[in-house]
Design goal:
With about 100 residues, the chain is mostly helical. It is about 60% helix and about 0% strand. It is elongated, with a radius of gyration of 25 Å.
Amino acid sequence: MPSPVIEYTTTAQAKTLDAITQSQAAVLDVVETWAKAVEGSVQELPAVPVASSLPSLEELISVQFDFAGKVLAAQRDFAEKLVKASAPAIKTTPVEVPTPVIPKA
């Protein structure tokens, strides 16, 4: 059985991710609607010779998020190893956790 703190944390995380996803969907909908509305009134941009040697926006996003994922994985590995390495210096006394009393309505 997970601790109440973990249950609260995972519930809060799920709600946060849901809110982010909903917000992103709303922004995407607005941007798509706006882009379609102005599509006919936007002029073509002149070609820039150097642009063909630059990465696409999709490539830039991919490279940056791949890197961010690797950094996050490295940080997690470091945090786990740090806790393990410091374990001999951390002494705790087991404490009995009282069962919460839920008032009856």
